[in-house]
Amino acid sequence: MTLKLHNFFRSSTSVRVRVALNVKGLDYEYVAYVLRTGETRTPEYLRRNPQGLVPTLELDDGRHLTQSLAIIEWLEETHPEPRLLPSDPFGRQRVRSLAYMIAHEIHPLNNLRVLFRLRDQFGADEGAQNAWFVHWVSMTFDALETLLEGDPSMGIYCHGDTPSLADICLYAQVWNNRRFDIPLDPWPTVARIFAELDALPAFHNAAPPNQPDAVS
């Protein structure tokens, strides 16, 4: 199967899918876009993804998969090993819950298009946008730290000793936080897990600075 990933190096949703592809050992063609200049708003790209968002995973039969978590679930179903979701129902619920806290509670509010709307409609300057970003990260990371700290289901990673969907979302979000200079000091468990993940080639190689389109 030939896979083509339409993505942006800094996009946390793109990081998620890159990690999942790496974990599954799947090769893919990397296609880069610049979000700030509207490269995903062209008629050509909108035919692939009418939302004009990244990532989009293009299959060799011409089909296009969108939404990072849905793409990862598809990868899990079509390439089940190594697993990104535990085998037991409780474990799957816990991993999904941790992942959704980040993907559903932080990312939608801190997406680039939301920050642009704050700027354009409400006059939020860079400082106000940063404060908005930090607020929503802190609210969820405080709860995430509490849920992780001391939980018997946690091991080296968020759930046991095998990286999961929860770890993928955590890893991508921490990289996103770095854009806004958010230190991990208030969340030592999150910081420890991130360090463990960043030592894994599948994660490290998917990080924003390590992509062909990366810029400072």
Report on the structure:
This protein has two domains: 4-82, Glutaredoxin; 89-204, Glutathione S-transferase Yfyf (Class Pi), Chain A, domain 2 (Up-down Bundle). Helices cover 53% and strands 6% of the residues. The protein has nine helices and four strands. A four-stranded mixed beta sheet has the order 2-1-3-4, covered by helices on one side. The model has no long low-confidence stretch (mean pLDDT 96).
Largest sheet: 4 strands, mixed
Biggest sheet strand order reads 2-1-3-4
Oligomer: single chain
Shape: globular
Number of strands: 4
Q: Which key terms come to mind for this protein?
A:
9 helices; 2 domains; Glutaredoxin; 216 residues; alpha+beta; 6% strand; globular; Glutathione S-transferase Yfyf (Class Pi), Chain A, domain 2
